[in-house]
Amino acid sequence: MNECSVAPRMGRQPLTTRAALSHVALRLFLEHGFDQTTVDDIATAAGIGRRTLFRYFPSKNDLPWGDFDAELARMRAFLAATDTTVSLVDALARAVVEFNRFPSEEVPFHRERMNLLLNVPALVAHSTLRYAEWRLVVSDFAAGRLGVAVDAIEPTVIGWVFLGASLAAYEQWLRTDGSNLIELLESALLLLKEGFTSGELPTVGPGGQA
């Protein structure tokens, strides 16, 4: 018998949204471990069939990401709507913050999601594909502003730098109880705007407070 056997729940309505299915998977990963939880376990807990689950997520590794494609589309739309008078760095910083802003009820799920994505070996490897998609949104916008090809060195560097700053904020958030993700992101992105010269920036504590 599977170590993570999940009994079906009688009378329960099946879950058929990406967010709901991702939440079910995250709960099972937290309770039983990522490697010990199977796709069948998740489908059973959600009240759907295995084939139906695969219509929403191509693999178990994709489940923690939730509706990531929709969030990327939202980020693109946010950048496209940003006034051209806003500087490139400010525009991207605002978009990154908005991309990572979640309703309060979603924060616990997101914290568990990022714990998995940054620490489970199978997910760390898979995450490179998703990070590449995220970086492309940033690089596309930067290339348009700079008037260069998206694979030119400038937008490529900008994509990597903004990803690095975001991941640094996430690592700090996960290892510091009570910290505020948005404040940490804003602090990290401020470094990109202002530079790293000692004495020019306020000292930022572990919780994102100056």
From TrEMBL:
InterPro entries: DNA-bd_HTH_TetR-type_CS (IPR023772), Homeodomain-like_sf (IPR009057), HTH-type_TetR-like_transc_reg (IPR050109), HTH_TetR (IPR001647), MftR_C (IPR041347), Tscrpt_reg_TetR-type (IPR023851)
Keyword DNA-binding: yes
Protein keywords: DNA-binding, Transcription, Transcription regulation
Ranges for domain HTH tetR-type: 15-75
PROSITE patterns found in the cross-reference section: HTH_TETR_1, HTH_TETR_2
DNA-binding region: 38-57
Pfam family, one: TetR_C_14
Lineage top rank: taxon: Bacteria
Molecular functions (GO terms): DNA-binding transcription factor activity; transcription cis-regulatory region binding
Keyword Transcription regulation on entry: yes
PANTHER family the record matches: HTH-TYPE TRANSCRIPTIONAL REGULATOR RUTR, MYCOFACTOCIN BIOSYNTHESIS TRANSCRIPTIONAL REGULATOR MFTR-RELATED
Protein name: Mycofactocin system transcriptional regulator
